[in-house]
Amino acid sequence: MIVQIQENARREQVNNLVSxxxxxxxxxRVSEELAGTTLGLVGDTGRLDIDQMRSxxxxxxxxxxxxxxxxASRKFRxxxxxxxxxxxxxxxxxxxxxxxxxxxxxxxxxxxxxxKVKDAGAxxxxxxxxxxxxxxxxxxxxxxxxLKMLLAAKKAAGLPVVSEIMDLSQLPLFEEVxxxxxxxxxxxxxxxxxxxxxIRRPILLKRGLSSTFEELLLSAEYIMAGGxxxxxxxxxxxxxxxxxxxNTLDISAVPILKQLSHLPVIVDPSHxxxxxxxxxxxxxxxxxxxxxxxxxxVHNAPELALCDGPQSITPExxxxxxxxxxxxxxxxxxxxxx
Amino acid sequence: MIVQIQENARREQVNNLVSxxxxxxxxxRVSEELAGTTLGLVGDTGRLDIDQMRSxxxxxxxxxxxxxxxxASRKFRxxxxxxxxxxxxxxxxxxxxxxxxxxxxxxxxxxxxxxKVKDAGAxxxxxxxxxxxxxxxxxxxxxxxxLKMLLAAKKAAGLPVVSEIMDLSQLPLFEEVxxxxxxxxxxxxxxxxxxxxxIRRPILLKRGLSSTFEELLLSAEYIMAGGxxxxxxxxxxxxxxxxxxxNTLDISAVPILKQLSHLPVIVDPSHxxxxxxxxxxxxxxxxxxxxxxxxxxVHNAPELALCDGPQSITPExxxxxxxxxxxxxxxxxxxxxx
Amino acid sequence: MIVQIQENARREQVNNLVSxxxxxxxxxRVSEELAGTTLGLVGDTGRLDIDQMRSxxxxxxxxxxxxxxxxASRKFRxxxxxxxxxxxxxxxxxxxxxxxxxxxxxxxxxxxxxxKVKDAGAxxxxxxxxxxxxxxxxxxxxxxxxLKMLLAAKKAAGLPVVSEIMDLSQLPLFEEVxxxxxxxxxxxxxxxxxxxxxIRRPILLKRGLSSTFEELLLSAEYIMAGGxxxxxxxxxxxxxxxxxxxNTLDISAVPILKQLSHLPVIVDPSHxxxxxxxxxxxxxxxxxxxxxxxxxxVHNAPELALCDGPQSITPExxxxxxxxxxxxxxxxxxxxxx
Amino acid sequence: MIVQIQENARREQVNNLVSxxxxxxxxxRVSEELAGTTLGLVGDTGRLDIDQMRSxxxxxxxxxxxxxxxxASRKFRxxxxxxxxxxxxxxxxxxxxxxxxxxxxxxxxxxxxxxKVKDAGAxxxxxxxxxxxxxxxxxxxxxxxxLKMLLAAKKAAGLPVVSEIMDLSQLPLFEEVxxxxxxxxxxxxxxxxxxxxxIRRPILLKRGLSSTFEELLLSAEYIMAGGxxxxxxxxxxxxxxxxxxxNTLDISAVPILKQLSHLPVIVDPSHxxxxxxxxxxxxxxxxxxxxxxxxxxVHNAPELALCDGPQSITPExxxxxxxxxxxxxxxxxxxxxx
Lengths: 338, 338, 338, 338
What we know:
Chain A is an alpha/beta fold and about 350 residues long. Chain A folds into two domains: about 1-65, Phospho-2-dehydro-3-deoxyheptonate aldolase, domain 1 (Alpha-Beta Plaits); about 85-335, TIM Barrel (Alpha-Beta Barrel). The first copy, chain A, is about 35% helix and about 20% strand. In chain A, the strands form three sheets. In chain A, strands 7-8-9-10-11-12-13-14 form an eight-stranded parallel β-barrel, surrounded by six helices. A four-stranded antiparallel sheet of chain A has the order 2-3-1-4. Chain A has a two-stranded antiparallel ribbon with strand order 5-6. In chain A, helix 3 packs parallel to helix 4 (about 145-155), helix 3 (about 105-120) packs parallel to helix 10 and helix 9 runs parallel beside helix 10. The radius of gyration of chain A is 21 Å and the shape is elongated. The first copy, chain A, starts with a strand and ends with a helix. The relative contact order of chain A is 0.12. The interface between A and B is large, with 45 and 45 residues.
């Protein structure tokens, strides 16, 4: 349930209302925007007398919400969430570019790619140290060592970094990682989500292979319910009957998620298709559809990559894709929104 | 199997080779492009002696083809097929805009929409007379009467028209329909496909709800095997687990189908989402990804439409979408292809 | 909307009520069972005064129905429909066995298989003359000639036959075919469904590859709305992300369809899996889950079959499967229903 | 790669061969069955000289294996794995019945259900203490307290217990839990799988909502690669386009997994359908198709359950289902295997 507060309400009055609502065993979340203050109520609201509430001096309106999430809902917060980390912002009306290799393979590799994508205008560096692999016999990433190499590259290139966490025990190693990624296979690893709600660092949450929009937003809600409101949603393809592509990019996810939620939404065209030559057209489609950012796998020598080579593009190709994507994005913005 | 012919081969030599190949019970299709002549062999090629063929004077190369389609394959014809009808071309490097109501409801309705989308720069008018509806109790279209109204609007607005056929018995009524549509539910109605192969009119073939790219191209092959090579492929969303949208637009279909085939590929953002407010972002995504055209449902009063109202946009909204889509398309073209 | 009629209502009174209802532009379907008479109303029932109707002498109850189908609904007819053809019944509490080759290949082939499956206790012979094939270059069936061979085998073996129709133009050839099959790809070929509603022959309607239960029942409704109430539903596997099997048998379809509808439901384990060695376990599962029948592909020499060899079993294997399936079916019946 | 060892090979010779193979950086797994000793080689086998190996005295045969799993493969171990825990066996030719509530709600609740399902012949008690819920605001289980109640019920009823782990930090609490369940959402939580490979307790591994058979077996391989070979596979429904059921039970999973692997396979008809009245028919189908066990949600008052009430059945209904399932299972066994 959403309660809109009168503009002229005093802080004390709002606090009193919150306390009163909490006495019904409800959790109350408060959103303060330019447009006004809104309360989001979670729990069994059945015992509330809606008419009584509507008649309160400081209440402007009360709305029942069908969706089971509140913090992530556009109804609770009408203005776009902008996430800022280390000088980079995601969701503020620009197209944030995240680039880097699927997995960190050596100090030279990650450093060289970092400098090249930096040159090509990337805003952020990605690189996996802990890799979720279907087979126990595949390369599993360099682990803690890899993370150190990533942080060295971060320093050298001056780029904030994003890397995937696979288990809570790894959390201490992520101290200097600017954005922590929760992968598609862990989107409903609720223990991880809950713990990440307790820290204050942006979380990049990838949509599960067969997760609905509602499930994705509920997973974001797990993080936000803990107090960490900086969640970036990422569409990376879903599993369908079509096997030509590794996954099927659900491009509609962007406008739908942005309608349902105030959180920024980015697209990963590399995992979505699994095919390097599709990265460019899908990146342009994502830029045109209104994504807040792109995450692209870049490798110095895709044919030798220890992981996901077939979907990686070279730094040179990345430069061209990034330029074209920004160009399309700018043009769509210029056309205005309807 | 694909046989590339030497540039300097004489027509007579090629004919002899074709006759010889046909003596093996193979069907031989001939493609003559600027790049040279290519033969596509269909049937049991196991009895051919490849080495013998490679050693022939007029043969430049022989390639086994994994795909089960030949006529529709990019390997058989390397240059894009351009379909021309009544002054409009599809596939020649532009973005062809097809607009109109889901179903024809009255003479005034179709005429008024026709004139408005014409004004908004549409290249072609769509309108359904025979409607495939899940329920026998839903509005089934105006049938032959509706088709007459469409043809009157065609004349008045000076726009070529596209309309869906549902059964071969309706074919005589389609005499003046410029492009005949085969709907998603009929994509594997092989009897219709076969018959449409015998006429000489462009066919707009929509991808089935759960059809793979290969199945779509095989259905195109049914038409082309009969000699009708003017097939337009249309991505209109596939069925997945996600129920927020009516279907899931598979935006990757465009670059993949254009890689596998020389046929033009258009996108229908209206059916793909089933939600009017998604038409614009999905149309822009399709324009950015490289589609050859867009088919958009436009209705004068979507809230009163007898069919598919929730996914229809007004002529005014259409005008803006079309302008933005062409703008994006032009910009992507200007960025060049990689 | 469903209207239950009082037990003691006179025929004349019922007729008057029907006429009155039809004056509201509604279609009225009448079901007369031992349990009483029921009217099914289709169309815009919004103008009816429900309270007025409930107060009528001959009306026992009025129920709004959420489902968009009426004739096929269990709410309209509570007792199981039993379909009888040529001495065989489907849906009457037994397990009807339908066996035969995917496609008729020669007179000897179909006759020899017919005699063998007859010996093995089959109730009905299947055999395809018109084959829907993804590729135009695959064997398309023997057509009219094949149908003649099937009818000769019918006579010789004394088994009623089922065969698939692909286009309405073929209908005259099906005069002596006991049960006409509509294949999965034609489940939403509404023109065929409508025409089959006008004849009086049982129709075996296969579920489409990605059709919901509701869509299947609506397709049955197309046939029944025309007056042909003898529809047999067939689950034959749906398309999912799993590619190990050709399709995924949705075994839950049987109890669900039997709850939603009074029509008999059979299972085709051959198409559902596409793997011969799965036919036995899936047939047993179908018998245990409560299917009214099984349709199994049997070929004298599966490895030489012109179509679907990998999923066909030999007459010898069929005999064992049929015996085991009947055994399981009998045991489940003996356990009673809950 | 699979290496079959001659029957008369001495232990020492085998050890020498294993050491030699390990010198190529391969992991070697040894299976000793009545049928003989088999080595499973994992890693880059490209440098091995197959002909040299085939010519070795103690080698009977060498087979390349297409599947990326070895320990879980039927090719590596031909005889069924039988898992024994606390007097109960799974996979040894019987139908093991596991029953209990979705979540433990109180000491009385779990104890009362335990005693009732014990009376009804259940072999094992299930009960969730840590519940994976889509929403952070849903009941999350009683946690450590719940687990204590389960262990008390275990003692009182004399039934081994199975319960789900959600995070490695919970592992110490599972000391006396006989079988540890990894839920569908954690099927690719590789950190948990790896750790569970280090203990010596049976693991019940549920198939992910959109996981292929190969992915399920690779997740089993994660556990087995660590040395814990006691993995029970569980089919519990997959996500498809059909929304009438919560998931779609993939009944074919049982015969396919049992062909690909030697591990026992059980079925959870409660989660597969999400509908209590489907539990019985699906349980019978699973028994007929050859499952090694059934896991069924039983609740004393399903309408009051804090979790998954709609799919739970009463102890009374369970008793009847269990009896019927065993009856069907016995009959299928009696029919023999083909």
